[in-house]
Amino acid sequence: MTAATHSTLFPQVPETPDAVLDGLDPEQREVALALHGPVCVLAGAGTGKTRAITHRIAYGVRAGILQPATVLAVTFTNRAAGEMRGRLRQLGATGVQARTFHSAALRQLQYFWPKAVGGELPRLLERKVQLVAEAAARCELRLDRNELRDVTSEIEWAKVTQTVPADYPAAVAKTQRDAPRDPAVLSQIYSTYEQLKSDRSVIDFEDVLLLTVGILQDRTDIADHVRGQYQHFVVDEYQDVSPLQQRLLDLWVGDRDDLCVVGDASQTIYSFTGATPDHLLNFRTRHPGATVVKLVRDYRSTPQVVHLANGLLSQAHGKAADHRLELVSQRDKGPEPVYAEYSDEPTEAEGTARRIRDLVAAGVPAGEIAVLYRVNSQSEVYEQALADAGVPYQLRGAERFFERAEVREAGTALRGAARAGGNDSLLDGAEDLAAQVRAVLSTKGWTSRPPAGSGAVRDRWESLAALVRLAEDFETARPGATLTDLVRELDERAASQHAPTVQGVTLASLHSAKGLEWDAVFLVGLTEGMMPIAYAKTDEQVEEERRLMYVGITRARVHLSLSWALSRSPGGRASRRPTRFLNGLRPGSTASGSRSGVGGGGGIDRGSGRAAVERTPAVERKPRSPVRCRVCGRTLTDAGEMKLMRCEECPSDMDEALYGRLYDWRAAQAALLGQPDFCVFTEKTLMAIAEAVPSTAGELVVIAGVGNRKLSRFGTDVLAICAGEAIDGGSEEGADES
Q1: Is 332 buried (19+), middle (13-18) or exposed (0-12) by CB count in 10 A?
Q2: Which end of the chain is least crowded, N or C, by CB within 10 Å?
Q3: CA separation (Å) from 408 to 81, 161, 168, 395?
Q4: DSSP H or E segment with residue 522
Q5: Among the listed ranges 122-131, 413-422, 517-526, 625-634, which one has the minimum average pLDDT value?
């Protein structure tokens, strides 16, 4: 059984309904055959969930059980919806609606607005940043670009969690959310933003969902109309639904149970946008008779990659961890994951680029390699390193393939050549389809050899080269196909955003890599403070960071590299530590505790008609202690950890620049006293000071390792350094006292 990860680009449409089921494994087949009643598919990474649900829809349509026009499949990105439409088309299930939540809601809103409200639907605001900036200005605040982005995201979170401006401060306090500004101020900006929209008769993307919900709630006739049209619902990535999306889904479904949801709680990584896995985890409670199918056969990754992914989740905690799936690789053995430690970030990037160049030389296509990082700002050093190594790359999140200017121009040229047929002299001597495409695209900048270097010229060539490769594959799959046939295929792909692969190493954030996969993946920058990110303070925030790393690991099919740098720049202090998530997994490290035995294998539970009783995991009892980690609350026993008041593995909010100044001051002070550095302050005490940044003697003296004696000797200097003041030489008073 295979999930056909590398299926041909143009497979033949199955001849019969039963042929749609060919090649599915037993659990995927159960998904495809479960066409009635509520169905919950718990699908681990790489287990072929999209394959299972698209074959389910296609089998139902081809067998006459489902009418295509009555099926609505919803997901979260245009790319995922496009992929679903493409697969359904290849399976012969045309006419099925596969859309994002917003797209489906907008279509309904445009149709029903004149009847429900009257007049034309208000204009949709494509980007809300400018209006948010104006709202802030009216509140006498000027926000820079980054602050605007954060405030805009916060407004979006409030709306998808159905929080009105007046309730926002209370919602922040209840959820322990780390707001980018004072909640009262944000509430004012949010309220002003809503008023500006109303004054100008515009709506934003969140309003699309809110208004659709309002109409369906208030107008039973319209709700009945929608339910009459759509009678069967499929929701992909169900762990990512927000409260607002769930409310809309409930209104769509009504009192029926023709609902199939698919998701994996271990891949919940968008809680900052309002997503929650609770709806997935509680599905059986709300639908007692639901059929539950677990997909755990991993067709994507080698046993070595899967073993690491399972090991990472074995140390997880929380409700999502209690429902984790233990993946079982279906692939042959591959190379072990590579762990690499570097002295600094540029060296890490250069080492990564060298290894990528070696993989490409060994036959791994550049388009099948990805470098994944936690935040987008990390990309620059890798862009430079890959350019220096002569390796082509592409940034994930750039303009869509079929929307690029060169692709649109190429499409126009190919369409013109197809209409001209044999009358186009450009095609003289081009006997086959691929040769005709190469001849046409040569007028747009395509050459048989790529241009040197990187940049816009290389990007343009890569786009045209992707079209040439697609034409070659199309001709192989459809012998005798004409240029007109290819143009029609390109138009269909453009409509469904089903783009060919551009041959270049992908640079992407871990969040934007969700749903993608590569032969080789390089996870870089895996240090405390970056993974988990420094602002992940609560247990749940740290666990979401673990899930984010799990998503990164499970993107790899064969080759997986995990790396970190001990300092930011060459010559810097090696003060960084590799992520705690690799403790017990990477060579030479010790585990921080695992949860083996929690989780489950694959299988089918057809439901008993009663709500399943969830087993409550045993609570670990910890001995009472007066010293606990100020980040995670764990009892501290190590003297160094007690001095820092946090675990070694917990994220540090240390001011590195301040630590550097204290470090240099200590060296000068120790030289003046003729004593070892630690006799002034230990490094742990310096770190504790740099984390606390005391401004008064009272705040400094309570830091472990300071005390009254060292406060009197060094307190003036230390407080001055913390305040950013310059210190001239060592402390004469301290030298005399010694």
Answers
A1: exposed
A2: C
A3: 22, 39, 45, 20
A4: strand 518-523
A5: 625-634
Count other Cβ atoms within 10 Å, centred on residue 413: 16
Phi-psi region at 584: left, alpha or beta (left = phi > 0; alpha = psi -120 to 50): left
Q: Residue 189 and residue 137: Cα distance in Å, rounded?
A: 9
Listed in order, strand segments (DSSP E) in 192-289 are 202-203, 232-235, 259-263
With tokens 């869509």, the residue in question is: 400
Alpha-helical regions (H) of 563-706: 639-644, 656-673, 683-692, 697-701
Q: Could you give the C-alpha distances from 65 to 236, 325, 532, 637, in angstroms and in order?
A: 21, 31, 47, 64
Write phi, then psi, for 88 (nearest 5 degrees): -65, -40
The answer to whether residues 72 and 99 touch, using CB atoms and an 8 Å cutoff, is yes
Check: CB of residue 567 under 8 Å from CB of residue 573. yes
What is the rounded CA–CA span in Å between residue 647 and residue 630?
Answer: 8
Burial class (CB in 10 A: 0-12, 13-18, 19+), 624: exposed
- Report, as an integer, the average pLDDT of 678-695: 84
Query: Greatest CA span in the chain, whole angstroms?
Result: 99
DSSP 70: G
On the question of pLDDT at 346 being above 80, the answer is: yes
Task: Provide the CA 567 distance to its chain's centre, in angstroms.
Answer: 26
Does the reported pTM lie above 0.70? no
Q: Is 630 helix (H, G, I), strand (E, B) or coil?
A: coil
Q: Do strands 603-605 and 291-295 pair parallel, antiparallel, or not at all (unpaired)?
A: antiparallel
Looking at residue 197, its amino acid is K
Using one digit for the tens of pLDDT, what is the confidence trace for 140-177? 888 877 678 888 988 999 998 889 999 999 998 888 78
Is residue 116 within 8 Å of 223, Cβ to Cβ? Answer: no
Radius of gyration of the chain (CA): 29
Residue 220: other Cβ atoms inside 10 A:
9
At residue 607, φ and ψ (nearest 5 deg) are: 85, 150
- Calculate ∠ Cα 2-546-568, nearest 5°: 115
Query: What is the distance between the alpha carbons of residues 584 and 311, in angstroms, rounded to a whole number?
Result: 9
Strands (E) across 318-361 are located at: 328-329, 338-342
- Determine how many CB atoms are found less than 10 A away from the CB of residue 495: 12
> In 550-612, at which residue ranges do the beta strands (DSSP E only) sit?
556-565, 603-605
427-461 residue pLDDT tens: 777 778 888 898 889 888 888 877 654 445 666 78
CA atoms in the 13 A half-sphere facing the CB of 151: 32
* Size of the chain, expressed as the number of residues it contains: 738
d(CA 39, CA 687): 53
- Amino acid residing at 277: P
Contact 432, 481 (CB under 8 A): no
DSSP letter at 442 equals: G
CA distance 91 to 83: 12
* Residue 469 per-residue DSSP state: H
Residue 636's pLDDT band (cuts 50, 70, 90) = low
Angle at 316 between CA 548 and CA 273, to 5 degrees: 40
Q: How far is CA 527 from CA 57, 531, 532, 565, 633, in A?
A: 43, 6, 8, 7, 21
Is the confidence at residue 7, as pLDDT, over 70? no
Task: Decide if 104 contacts 213 (C-beta within 8 A).
Answer: no
d(CA 482, CA 473): 13
